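User: Design a sequence. Structure:
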């Protein structure tokens, strides 16, 4: 096929053009280079033999021929040959690699990258050849596991390497023992870095999405569908790191023997976590437990992991127990306010910060508003992170002394965790999301449905949005005709109302429908875009019919229960009506015949009216109970919740 110039990239130090289409419909790319960039002439690479095959392609041992006027050299290199990429994406991928190469220059803990080339239509990453990997070393050991001392040593090397990449805004997303390469001094280096990250937004010819987001056994919950359940963030690598450490310690790959679908179901839906071996130094155990928090904001950062590993490295194993500088029991993952210590350590307060009391997790209302609006005037810290702070609150003379973990920083009116809306909508993603961080300079990071990674911008682009929390009832707005996610309808065709059971880090709502009876494989939970729903409560339901319909949303058993009650009452009424008619007939027949009997009938009729004393008592008791409840709970909604709970239907 005739040549076709695709791009002459002005900023990069290489140009590339597509010239020929091969049998696989992927075109051979000829690149001219000024030699200062990462581009390597494909004729300078001679593939020798394949070292292995992974989800992202094959790794080859190769020779790189370099020649100039005064020298000629041959280097042994490793070449990662990626799966074919659609030719209209070649430019985007090359640009991303170019960016990654320039960012990785000079980093110590990551595999040394030589350059990039394209061989046989496939993109190839040329890198330093290492003698082996941690995975290879494990395979040589009995039981496939490493000594704790080595695991801690490698863990420290790797955490440092990952932190270097994170400092350049690069996520690894594919941490696993076979990608931990060992150098001549037996130090672990990150190999294969950034392949899933580079391919994150690139459409692939194959629909096997999970495989290009990472290696299933090591993937975090948000990594399976970052656009839907994401975004992926630095702490996504904490999950992969935790999996790798567990494997190094046990010799068993996480979720070993499960299919890709099973793993996805186990991690994403069932929210199960890999099992952690016992007998670890408490600090290490604590940090690894934290790596498997479902919500990535609650996981430790690489700095936290590095700190824990370093502090445990000198611990000595004695008679089945750990002694050493950090010997202590594993602290609770959740602090008193319901957040993990890792969550709380992501932001530390400074004098001058505006603060307010922190809401409990998954709540839209503050539990206690000791500090509705204050300013930090003093810090009282025993360690770097934990400690009390002095807060000046308007209207109170002396500053309050409160624990830092109970406060959240408010900058330009926003605090991490707030629900926000983009003032200028972008059709590609939901306009409503959750604020993950706000810098003191006003820079913000937000999780939105439809964006793979955190959206970055400034606070001026955002406004506050309605917040949602677990337990709330929601339904699609009536003006939404084609929702982003599937949503069930009622029998009458209108959108069903469901209850939020989980809020994802991007504001995505996982909603269950207790008012619908599900059978067999029917999905019981649905996803919702927060921009497309509205909250439903007894107070917002207009009229008694709507209020009753909302009661039905609490549980599918409400309707059958009420029908049964109705039938029972009707039967009871029918029975009494029949009895009454019979008696009046008897009364008519006996009229004038037996005066003594007349008195009896009158007496009976007077006492019962049209209901028996028993039924009258039931009704009186029910009415009294209703008033009692109304008095103590205050709203019809609370009565419904309380009563249905006591009936055991919630
Ligand atoms: N630079 C390198 N030097 C030496 N061996 C390497 C190098 N890079 C990778 N390998 C080895 O090549 C083998 C195959 O690697 P590859 O990365 O393709 O597989 P993987 O790690 O299982 O999958 P993935 O594609 O997810 O990284 C592994 O054993 C790995 O340790």
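Assistant: Done.
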């Amino acid at each position: 096929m005739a040549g076709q110039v695709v791009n002459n990239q002005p900023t990069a130090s290489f140009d590339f053009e597509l010239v020929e289409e091969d049998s696989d419909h992927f075109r051979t790319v000829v690149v001219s280079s000024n030699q200062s960039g990462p581009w390597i002439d494909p004729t300078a690479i001679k593939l020798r033999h394949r070292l292995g095959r992974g989800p992202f392609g094959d790794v080859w041992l190769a020779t790189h021929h370099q020649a100039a006027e005064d020298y000629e050299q041959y280097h042994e290199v490793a070449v990662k040959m990626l799966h074919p990429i659609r030719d209209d994406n070649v430019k985007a991928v090359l640009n991303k690699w170019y960016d990654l190469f320039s960012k990785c220059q000079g980093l110590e803990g990551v595999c040394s990258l030589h350059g990039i080339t394209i061989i046989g239509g496939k993109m190839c990453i040329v890198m330093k050849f290492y003698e082996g990997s941690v995975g290879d070393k494990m395979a040589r050991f009995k039981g496939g596991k490493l000594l704790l001392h080595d695991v801690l040593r490698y863990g420290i090397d790797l955490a440092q390497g990952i932190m270097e990449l994170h400092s350049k805004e690069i996520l690894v997303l594919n941490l696993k023992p076979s990608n931990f390469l060992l150098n001549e001094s037996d130090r672990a280096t990150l190999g294969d870095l950034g392949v899933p990250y580079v391919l994150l937004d690139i459409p692939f010819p194959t629909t096997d999405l999970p495989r290009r987001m990472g290696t299933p056994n090591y993937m975090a919950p948000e990594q399976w569908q970052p656009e839907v359940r994401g975004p992926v963030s630095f702490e996504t690598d904490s999950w992969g790191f935790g999996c790798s450490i567990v494997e190094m310690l046990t010799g068993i790959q996480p979720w070993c023997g499960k299919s890709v679908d099973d793993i996805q179901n186990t991690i994403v839906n069932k929210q199960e976590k890999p099992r952690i071996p016992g007998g670890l130094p408490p600090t290490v155990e604590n940090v690894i437990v934290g790596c498997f928090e479902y919500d990535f904001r609650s996981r430790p950062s690489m700095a936290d992991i590095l700190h824990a590993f370093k502090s445990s490295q000198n611990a000595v194993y004695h008679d089945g127990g750990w002694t050493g500088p950090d010997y202590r029991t594993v602290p609770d993952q959740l602090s008193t306010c319901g957040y993990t210590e890792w969550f709380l350590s992501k932001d530390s307060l400074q004098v001058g910060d505006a603060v307010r009391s922190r809401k409990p997790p998954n709540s839209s209302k503050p539990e206690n508003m000791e500090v509705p609006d204050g300013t930090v005037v003093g810090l009282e810290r025993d360690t770097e992170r934990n400690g009390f702070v002095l807060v000046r609150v308007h209207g109170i003379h002396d500053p309050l002394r409160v624990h830092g973990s109970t406060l959240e920083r408010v900058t330009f009116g926003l605090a991490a965790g707030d629900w926000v809306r983009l003032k200028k909508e972008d059709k590609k993603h939901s306009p409503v999301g959750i604020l993950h961080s706000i810098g003191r300079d006003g820079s913000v990071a937000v999780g939105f449905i439809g964006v793979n990674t955190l959206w970055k911008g400034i606070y001026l682009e955002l406004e506050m949005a309605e917040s949602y929390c677990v337990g709330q009832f929601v339904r699609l707005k009536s003006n939404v005709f084609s929702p982003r996610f599937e949503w069930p309808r009622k029998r009458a065709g209108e959108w069903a109302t469901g209850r939020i059971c989980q809020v994802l880090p991007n504001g995505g709502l996982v909603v269950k429908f207790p008012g619908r009876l599900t059978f067999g494989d029917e999905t019981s939970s649905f996803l919702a875009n927060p921009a497309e729903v509205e909250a439903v409560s007894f107070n917002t339901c207009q009229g008694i019919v709507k209020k009753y319909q909302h009661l039905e949303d609490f549980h599918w058993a409400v309707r059958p229960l009420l029908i049964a009650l109705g039938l029972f009452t009707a039967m009871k009424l029918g029975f009494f009506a029949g009895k009454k008619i019979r008696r009046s007939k008897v009364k008519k027949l006996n009229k004038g015949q037996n005066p003594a009997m007349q008195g009896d009938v009158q007496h009976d009729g007077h006492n019962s009216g049209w209901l028996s004393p028993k039924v009258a008592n039931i009704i009186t008791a029910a009415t009294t109970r209703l008033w009692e409840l109304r008095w103590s709970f205050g709203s019809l909604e609370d009565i419904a919740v309380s009563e249905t709970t006591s009936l055991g239907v919630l």
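The mean pLDDT is 81. The first strand starts at residue 4 and ends at 7.
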